[in-house]
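We emphasize that the prediction below concerns an isolated chain of 301 residues; any contacts that depend on oligomerization or on bound cofactors are therefore not represented. The input was used exactly as deposited, without trimming of termini.
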Amino acid sequence: MAKALVTGGAGFIGANLTRALLDRGDEVHVVDTLVASTREQVPQGAVLHEVDIRNTEELIPLCTGVEYLFHCAALPRVQFSIKNPMETHAVNITGTLSVLEAARQANVGRVVYSASSSAYGDQKILPLVESMAAQPKSPYGLQKYVGELLCRVWSEVYELPTVSLRYFNVYGPGLDPDGPYALVIGKFLAQRKRREAFTITGDGEQTRDFTHVRDVVRANLLAAESSKVGKGEVLNIGAGRCVSIKKLAELIGGPVNFVPARLEPKHTKADAGLAKELIGWEPSVLFEDGIAELKKEWGLS
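Result of the prediction step, given as a token string:
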């Protein structure tokens, strides 16, 4: 049994990860302000600490004795960051710095950072590989990329073991369907439940590399224990498949309403070869199966 700490453990990815850690018998502590979630979303058995990640002094004692720190806390979504750059900067950059510094001072065994494929922006070549220069197109993409750089520097300068996982469009049980910045899969499920037309921005030909949350959780567990990482490496965690928004609408099933395009990358597709090499990770959930599972969960199948 290990002692693990999950920042943002009441959120979508964090809660799924917390549940997996509990299932394998770990002692799990969750740090979350519950601003975007509720106490009920923290899996039963985890110890909740309502602490802001920017409060380093409060974080340090919580990190004491922690073997694995999974930093999932963030103010997410590209569009939200475009409208709120100062607020998202404070949490996503200053908050990450605070987490790393608390981990350093408390001698945490390893930090696994939830990074984002939005750091790539638009690239001329697919699939996306970690050696490509980052070209973020939003404050969020920039902020998550800076988090990767902080992790690498804290490993090089302070010898704090870190590894960054660049997630590609995570979906699955527990996703948030509400709010103007909800993920497209959640929006479509909610719209079908209400018998409304799916809202598609632009022509719907934009593609995403949808990656199931169970695969993301497994990547975190592997990254925490692999002897081949811990020096600030960056790994793509993506299914390696382009799925258009129009195709997604067809799978969920329903009428479509097209609205003007917005600022966002046109295509994303991961090359996850490095993750396979360094932590033994490969995607396992087929997208069609994941959507069928969600439709059943929502009573839509």
